[in-house]
């Protein structure tokens, strides 16, 4: 845990000195090194340090993500949160972000189902407040309520099944339930679908995704980055832990969920090509990537499960970076429309370079973490059924098309006469991308950290 503490300290120093030139760069560099060292030292044995805290490599990876993403969001939120701003609104926003981070870290370290469920649902409250108070449009109330309705209604069956299992086993401990594996008749029938429904809504998969684009569009930058980088991973981690504890096997119902998820990911890729709002486009791309990660976990192959976790981790760094870049476009053109926000390459070539790098990483270009995780997920799915090749091929095609569309439409062309661009963008947007870019492009050197 010493490596994690050093990472927290170096991240704090990096945030406190964002404009101090060499000193700030050194702090950022050391933070990245500490994170890589932490990844090398992860243990893949499940450890319980007390009756309610337990962790393994997956838990620590997700906790690392919780350290990175909120820091990126606070640094990027130039107009929402400033170190020199002492207003109550600015302080409140920082406190809400810290609360979300704390709740999510505790969630990833829980070792029993009831505490796990409590923090799984409690994470919605500060997120709802973040959207409601710092959102930009009047529709933010509708977006927040829709998010609560989807996630709470989807999680009620999860609570019922947890109580039933607790009543039968007289424990809600992950480790004790895993030692009792093979005695769970609940999870050989449709009841397993009810239990994982809460996780599927939080991911989300297609058909239960209606809350995600609205929440992203109405949320402030910090809310969008935390939502994409952390909160979506709560569902993926919960599904992984559910499969790990109960040692589930493939069934017709789970195969049906995988089919819906993959074809839904294909449809989400198509939706990306029809979006006129940058944030909505990036939000729909998350649905497509989460569908592939879900397929890797539900393939029940160890390689597929670890590739799914790797994909969640990579997406948790890539998607917030894209939202940060989208916010920089909004600061420049005062519009998120792909029809109005053009010509960044002419004015800010350095921003254009980062746009290109993050778009190709989102495509899964080698040697990024996205590439290796997607390849292993696809391999596990095709090994499970050759018919999965059809949606996977089209998902790859549409992902490449909408990523190139996103890059070209924002960076090339002539700025619309309807907007009055601002010719001074804050460099803090670029500072926030340093971690994600270095880890995503250099993480292939540490792929063993994602394998049992």
UniProtKB/TrEMBL annotation:
Single GO BP term: electron transport coupled proton transport
This enzyme's EC code(s): 7.1.1.2
Superkingdom of the source species: Eukaryota
TM ranges: 21-46, 52-72, 93-110, 144-166, 186-207, 219-240, 252-273, 280-300, 306-332, 344-365, 385-409, 429-447
One MF term in the entry's GO annotations: NADH dehydrogenase (ubiquinone) activity
Main localization category: mitochondrion
Membrane-protein topology: Multi-pass membrane protein
Subcellular localization: Mitochondrion membrane
NADH:quinone oxidoreductase/Mrp antiporter transmembrane domain sequence ranges: 112-398
Membrane is among the record's keywords: yes
Top EC group: translocase
Keyword vocabulary terms for this entry: Electron transport, Membrane, Mitochondrion, NAD, Respiratory chain, Translocase, Transmembrane, Transmembrane helix, Transport, Ubiquinone
InterPro entries cross-referenced by the UniProt entry: NADH_UbQ_OxRdtase (IPR003918), ND/Mrp_TM (IPR001750)
Catalytic activity: a ubiquinone + NADH + 5 H(+)(in) = a ubiquinol + NAD(+) + 4 H(+)(out)
Role noted for this protein: Core subunit of the mitochondrial membrane respiratory chain NADH dehydrogenase (Complex I) which catalyzes electron transfer from NADH through the respiratory chain, using ubiquinone as an electron acceptor. Essential for the catalytic activity and assembly of complex I.
Name this polypeptide is given: NADH-ubiquinone oxidoreductase chain 4
């Amino acid at each position: 845990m010493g490596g994690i503490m050093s990472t927290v300290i170096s991240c704090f120093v990096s945030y406190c000195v964002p404009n101090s030139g060499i000193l700030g760069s050194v702090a950022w560099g050391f933070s990245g090194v500490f994170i890589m060292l932490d990844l090398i030292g992860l243990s893949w044995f499940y450890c319980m340090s007390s009756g309610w805290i337990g962790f393994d490599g997956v838990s620590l990876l997700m906790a690392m993500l919780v350290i990175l993403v909120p820091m990126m969001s606070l640094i990027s939120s130039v107009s929402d949160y400033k170190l020199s701003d002492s207003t109550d609104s600015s302080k409140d926003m920082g406190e809400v972000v810290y609360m979300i981070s704390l709740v999510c870290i505790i969630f990833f370290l829980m070792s029993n189902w009831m505490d796990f469920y409590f923090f799984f649902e409690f994470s919605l409250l500060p997120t709802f407040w973040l959207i409601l108070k710092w959102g930009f449009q009047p529709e933010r109330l509708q977006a927040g309520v829709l998010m609560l309705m989807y996630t709470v209604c989807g999680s009620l069956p999860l609570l019922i099944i947890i109580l039933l299992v607790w009543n039968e086993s007289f424990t809600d401990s992950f480790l004790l339930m895993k030692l009792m594996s093979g005695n769970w008749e609940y999870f050989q029938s449709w009841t397993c679908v009810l239990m994982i429904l809460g996780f599927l809504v939080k991911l989300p998969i297609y058909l239960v995704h209606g809350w995600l684009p609205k929440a992203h569009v109405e949320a402030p930058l910090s809310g969008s980055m935390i939502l994409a980088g952390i909160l979506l991973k709560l569902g993926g981690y919960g599904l992984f832990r559910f499969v790990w504890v109960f040692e589930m096997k493939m069934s017709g119902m789970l195969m049906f969920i995988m089919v819906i998820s993959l074809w839904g990911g294909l449809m989400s890729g198509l939706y990306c090509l029809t979006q006129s709002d940058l944030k909505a486009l990036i939000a729909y791309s998350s649905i497509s990537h989460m569908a592939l990660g879900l397929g890797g976990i539900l393939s029940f192959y160890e390689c597929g499960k670890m590739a799914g976790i790797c994909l969640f981790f990579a997406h948790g760094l890539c998607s917030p970076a894209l939202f940060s870049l989208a916010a920089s476009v909004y600061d420049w053109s005062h519009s998120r429309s792909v029809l109005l926000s053009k010509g960044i390459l002419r004015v800010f070539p350095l921003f254009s370079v980062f746009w290109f790098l993050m778009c190709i990483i989102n495509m899964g270009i080698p040697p990024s973490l996205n590439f290796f995780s997607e390849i292993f997920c696809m391999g596990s799915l095709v090994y499970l059924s050759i018919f999965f090749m059809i949606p996977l091929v089209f998902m790859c095609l549409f992902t490449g098309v909408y990523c190139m569309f996103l890059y070209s439409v924002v960076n090339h062309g002539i700025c619309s006469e309807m907007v009055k661009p601002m010719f001074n963008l804050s460099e803090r947007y670029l500072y926030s991308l340093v971690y994600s870019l270095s880890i995503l492009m250099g993480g292939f050197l540490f792929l063993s950290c994602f394998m049992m």
